[in-house]
Amino acid sequence: MLHATELLGATTYDAAGHFVGRVKEMFVVPSEQPNRVSRLLLSRGRYRPLVARHDQIGTVAPGRIHLTTDESALELFHPNEAWLAVQKDLLDQQIIDTHGRKVVRVNDVDLGDYRTNGNTELRLEDVDVGLSGALRRLLKGMMPMAALRRIQQRVPSNRIRWEFVNLIEPDPMRRVKLRISSDKLEELHPADLADLMEEISPAERQSIMDSLDQEVAAETLAELDARLQTQVVEKLNPERAAEILEEMSPDAAADLIASLPPETSEEVLQEMGHREAEEVEGLLQFGENTAGGMMTTETVVVGEDATRGEVIDHIRFHEIPPDQIDNIILIDRDAALSGVVPISRLLLAGSDQRVSELVFEPRLSVTPETEDKEVFDLFDKYNLRSLTVVNAENHPIGAITVDDVVNRLHARI
Amino acid sequence: MTSRTTLTETLSSLKTRSRNFGRRSRTWRRRVAIFLAVVGPGLITSNVDNDAGGIGTYSQAGAQFGYHLLWSLIPMTIALYVSEEMCARMGVVTGKGLSDLIREEFGFRSTFFVMVAALAIDLFNTVAEFSGVAEASEVLHVSKYISVPLAAIAVWLLVIYGTYRIVEKIFLVACGFYVSYVISALLAKPDWLLAARQTITPPAHVNTPYLLMLIGLVGTTIAPWQFFYLQAGFVEKKVGPRQYKHAKWDVLVGSISCMVIVFFIIVACAATLNTHGLTNISSAGQAAMALVPLAGKWAGLLFAFGLLNASLFAASILPLSTAHVICEGLGFEAGLDNKFKDARFFYSLYTLLIVVGAGIILIPKAPLWKILIYSQVGNGIWLPIVLIFILLLINRRDLMGEHTNTVLFNLIAWASSIIMIILTLVLTYVAIFNPSASGLSGSILPFLHFL
User: Fold this and answer.
1) What's the pLDDT at B438?
2) Cβ separation B11–A278 shorter than 8 A
3) What residue in B sits closest to A287 (Cα-Cα)?
4) Whole-number pLDDT of residue B26
5) Domains of chain A
6) Which CATH architecture has domain B39-444?
7) Which of A225, B30, B173, B309 would bridge with B177, disulfide CB 3.0–4.6 Å?
8) Do B7 and A397 touch (CB under 8 A)?
9) What is the ipTM of this complex?
10) Residue of A nearest to B4 (CA)
11) Which of A354, A364, A397 lies closest to B4 in space, CA to CA?
């Protein structure tokens, strides 16, 4: 096991044993191999720096590298954006530890050395985020490397396996060039991902948001701090913003759009699908602290004559997401609210049973103008999961779900 | 069975009634809310500059030179604003703290030494703040052996059990208490016309003690650690570039209000101590006591209360800021919104600073004046380094994009930085080699008398 600190600055000799230069940087070329040190940048004072390829590296020891070729076989260095520089892009920078779900700062990089017929291949194995790496960085050059190694063995180390490391690269173009994948991030719970995104800088946040799959982006956005939501959406291009907002629940989308500057919100609404935009616009008219401002329009509405089996088929057929089906809203022939069936009651009923027999008592509903305080009281008193919102004609127009209530109450603590 | 389209239809019919009405009122309220949400770091940072050491120096300036140093407040406001604004801008644009940026751009080793220096100097400063608590309480006839431990515990509890939002609100209230100096000055019945005239009149005659006092004013008003706190404040509040103008106002209002308080402190002392020939004041506590017979009991008590408030205020922010800066730079979890088990190092460091800071004050016959000199010397050496880091970082196009300094701003920033650097270096030199020199002696040996 070697450390990047031990190799940066290492004196390098060619096959004939002549001094070539000092290692100034190590590059991983993700398009060739995701974790191999593929190029060494050798600086030679006032001469132009050279590059040693991985198959030209012979033996590697702390502070000392021997090549398998002559100096003349080395190429001149040309900067390449698609190369990941260990010193510049990794050391001292923040990365996301997708395993520990944390944003951490890199102190050192651990490299494994693998010998294959005369060559040594260096592979990135862990990043060191603990005390041992810090100590190495601090004391490097102030004592012999062997002595340093002895000291650091007594210090607890804190490492993250390379496969769990997700680089934070603010430039979206370079992100693509470096083949930074967001798969690992997308596997995280959106709430965890949102927490991570709150810890990094705006540009980095934007770059990750750009790279996420729409659905994950929408879920993550919904979990972000309200002020950050606005900042993020403002900087997305309107098409992408519209795509993401369409994936969000209309009430969350409406809250977000309301916080955007007017020009941006117009643009985004125009880019959105007709139906989604209308739902959102419908919600925007309500005051923030009223039932209308809290409700979502994504509800399941069925006729009161339906049976349990029919309702289940309806839910399956329309592929309604599970988080919307806490309550089934029943309406009569005039589309007026007749009652609400909690999903738990539906679960226990027989397939042919009419849903109207399962209605939750008392039959509750609020108008969109109802103050939020009154809504909270109802949730508290009747232990509700969801509360239906009706218009003046008693037609259901949406529902307030318990998670929105918790959110708002939490924000007031 | 009715499908979801009916719902949309119902909605669209509803919508026509009062389109946009709700949204407009929302944006109006939101705008005020955003401004209030952004305000804080600038106001707090500038006001906390008026800490125990600062108030001591201002009292002394007023006592010794009357209204004659008031002119320096306007240029100082500009210097304070210019330097703080750069940090605010960096925080808002990059979303990163100052120590984060130093780490990323200047590497581990520079960061480590910056952090060690910050720790040592801030510890001395913390001691100075607790000595302010001790001094104020003696004026109010409370023993320092009671007041200092109480203050330490109060400060510690406040930060450990409060979230950033709550703590910040309390800090904003503390900013309000500086008003006691305004009242104190009013009770002193100063010559307002003269004070106003002196504020805009450049100095007529300059001699060495005068110059040294001027340096003392600059040195205590612009403290290096405040830049870290300010930037971290805006980062932690997640102020984005669009709210930057609010942040800028926050910094401006902060800088001005800080100087207004300085104005009233100097005026209060000038109107009483200076006119009655009590020019040899050496500390804020002494000034408060001297005010009692001249301007009445209330003026003195308010003055002491102001000192207590300022010292407590700074004693809670300084250790907090230090712990924050160090953890940030070295990669430990930091911030009040973390729980103790997630940010062990952060909370331990914070606790240690308070315990040691308050503990030193309680040692009988502790060489407090030496510590105060060291804290001043430390600040003096430290300020140029921090300012240069700031100026290097703010002009990096890859970090700041279009928000780098303009040429004019750079000119003002470099000029005021260089002047500040020269002044603080002179102050440092004097503090080390000639601590008994003239007027300055008081500002750096404030508690000789009180010991």
Assistant:
1) 45
2) yes
3) B22
4) 45
5) 2-162 (2.30.30.240), 181-285 (1.25.60.10), 300-412 (3.10.580.10)
6) Up-down Bundle (1.20)
7) B309
8) yes
9) 0.70
10) A301
11) A397
